[in-house]
Amino acid sequence: MAMSGWSVAVLAAASALWLASGVERERPVLSPEASDAIAHLEANVAAHPESAPALRDLSQAYLEVRAPGLAISLIQHAPASVRSDPWVDHAYARALLDQGRAEEALTVERRVLDRCASDPAVGATPCDTWLIASATRRTDILQQLVHLGVEDAQAHPEASLIAYQNATREARLAVVE
Prior knowledge:
- There is one protein chain.
- The protein contains 9 helices and no strands.
- The protein is mostly helical.
- The chain has a single domain (30-168), classed as Serine Threonine Protein Phosphatase 5, Tetratricopeptide repeat (Alpha Horseshoe).
- The N and C termini lie far apart (102 Å).
């Protein structure tokens, strides 16, 4: 009899918790405005899965609407020929940083710089000046973040600011005649 009393009490408590919890409705991953804008890019990637520019544009759009997980998944499931593009890797590094994975982002960003430095005759995609400058700057900032032990830049804004300032300090020389 004592055991059935406990069973009834546990069942009553579980029922009360269940009734008090309410209904959880589904929510869209992206806002309706963002979803409409991204639908065209998603259709483009679906139609041209081997297109690195299409994948880069879609992953960049995901990053702009603060959905780095979608960008990471998109890039990780892309064909190897597309993933090897330095522009795609650059977007992948930003998505990793936005996800709070600074050390992995640093590794990927260094890979971008290595690909840009390699000989184009070997088959590497040529990099323009903007990509090299952006990757170099981000690598410097990521190195400072990792040096300070910051894995998630958004969770530690003060340390992230210090890392940014350390990485972007400039010394100027003035020549006086």
